[in-house]
Design goal:
24 strands; 4-stranded antiparallel β-sheet; mainly beta; single chain; globular; Neuraminidase
Amino acid sequence: MKKLIKLLLCLLMFLLVGCIEKETVVDEVPDAENSVFTEKGRLFVTSGENVYEIKKSSDSFYKDEIYEYEENEKRVVFAGITQVKDKLFVVGGSFNPDCSEPPSFSDLLSGNIDRFYQMLSNMFLDIKIFEADLTFTNTVLKPVYTLNSVIMPNGMTSDNEGNIYVVDMAPSPLGKIVKLNSDCLSCSEEIFANYNQNIVLANGLTIYDNTMYFTDNDARNPLNIKRYVKKLPLDYKNGEIAETIFDKTGPSIFDDLTNGELFGLKGILVTDYFKGQLHFIPFNKKFRSRSTPVGSFKGPSSVSFGKGNFDPDELIVTEKGIPFELRSSVGNKVTKAYFSK
């Protein structure tokens, strides 16, 4: 059954092909995960093996590794990424070699949720925050802090006060969003929000106007997964829960999200992983949401609005493809696309 569902996932990503204008920026990005543009327009992308800066040479792009492994170091799976002042922060976990196989979304979609979460919990030996100094042209990423309360790291963002937020995609009621201060990581790790604030299986994070927006997924019914974009004030009061601003139902999950402007409207742009779509949700409720066609992307994991070497109307999408298939020709790349009017 597991192999059959994995095959169906592959077929889904091959057969669902939407009509959208896009082109590959760089390929061979294993398990392409999250992305961020710095204030100066530098693009960094996390993956299942390294973190890359996407650079341009004449009329083509290439990727440059910024993490240098020590001898015999275990593979690091990198996830969320954000900038605070002149520092780049990334969260990642050292892959557990005793984990015979990674957690499979085929388990999730076939209803074997307990096995999925068990594999998820055993996937990493430790979870660390990594840091890089952006004042250097040749950026080098280094581990600086081991997280104590995170099982499965995912999305990451930061606020104007220098605080960093990390999603722990552990099963409810363990799933949460952790908050740290970038000036003192070791003395500031705390839970920002958890099941008390209506978090089930959070994934991506972004902040706009002193409000946290995040994706959340309820997979208890695998063929009818409820996926949400929710919001929660950064200064929420005791007893306050996250509010849903957008939702879909079906066999897919919402992955990462960002905020920006499309069609002259400010709003949230979210990736719909197995559907291969992007959804744009305007902040102004007078305007309806817009979506790319189903199958526009092969497992879109994150999206960013273009800066630096990219035009503002270009969307930079990490296409993960089939989870944990690091060498597959399906996904494992960074693309740029246009959201048609």
